[in-house]
Design brief:
By secondary structure, this protein is an alpha/beta fold. The protein is about 35% helix and about 20% strand. Helix 2 crosses helix 4.
């Protein structure tokens, strides 16, 4: 490993980490922040070294946003395919950084691109994880009109992940309202799937959230910029907001949300 720090302790056996393209961008206005990328990579490598099987789904919003291109007149399916290629760029950058941090990595793409990535095959991905390799999933689901949130929920279920880790860019959980517009908005410590859907809270898109709810897959929403946040999440340390089938509770309160 690149750093001589003690690996994190096991809390889960297998996790899926969703990284948005914006999270990889850091404070930059476009592209990748190398310092942020290196920090994420070192955390992922330490998690893998601890014996936790970790897979990653990356977004592409730091390079291309299909929905925005579509709104500007581009054919939606074409715009979404371009977005899938943006996620592949991010996946290759992350692959290189995680390898330099000392872990063995395999990148699998939902769109066949043999010279640069394996094609996604569920059983092969699981075998890589069982061998201690980090697996990065690129190109979303391979279908237009589907977000990388949906890809993350789908891949997490396909590989049998115990939890879906949603790393946000400077958002430390889920709030009852946008905290930038409503300063006194309360953060949820726990949030029920149904509450998240009915309140239309910005956890992930509704298709992805419904998929998690129907399969009882818990989601942890946390701030990637927080110190060693990925490692803290996989140890089971309370961080961010836990979205699950339990009743909703605001941070600092013990009573369920009415």
């Amino acid at each position: 490993m690149a750093e001589s720090e003690t690996p994190v302790a096991n809390a889960y056996q297998r996790v899926l980490l969703k990284l948005s393209g914006e999270a990889l961008m850091g404070k930059a206005s476009f592209g990748l922040d190398n310092a942020v990328l290196a920090d994420i990579a070192c955390q992922i490598a330490r998690v893998a070294a601890s014996g936790i099987q970790i897979a990653v789904v990356v977004g592409g919003g730091n390079i291309w946003r299909g929905a925005t291109a579509s709104q500007n007149g581009m054919d939606r399916a074409t715009a979404d395919y371009a977005g899938m290629l943006a996620t592949l760029i991010n996946a290759l950058a992350l692959q290189d950084a995680v390898e330099k941090a000392g872990a063995v990595v395999r990148t699998q793409s939902a769109i066949p691109i043999p010279p640069v990535a394996e094609q996604f095959i569920r059983r092969r991905a699981i075998r890589h994880l069982e061998k201690g390799r980090v697996v990065i999933f690129a190109a979303g689901t391979g279908n237009p009109y589907m977000t990388t949130d949906t890809a993350a929920a789908l891949r997490a279920l396909e590989i049998g992940a115990e939890v879906l880790l949603m790393a946000k860019n400077r958002v430390d959980g889920v709030y009852e309202a946008d905290p930038s517009r409503t300063p006194d908005a309360r953060k949820f410590l726990r949030l029920g799937y149904t509450d998240a859907l009915t309140r239309r809270l910005a956890v992930m898109d509704s298709t992805a959230l419904t998929l998690c709810m129907e399969n009882a897959l818990p989601i942890i929403v946390f701030d990637l910029a927080s110190d060693r946040s990925i490692e803290r999440a996989v140890t089971g340390e309370p961080i961010g907001t836990l979205v699950s089938g339990h009743e909703s509770v605001f941070a600092g309160e013990s009573q369920p949300v009415a």
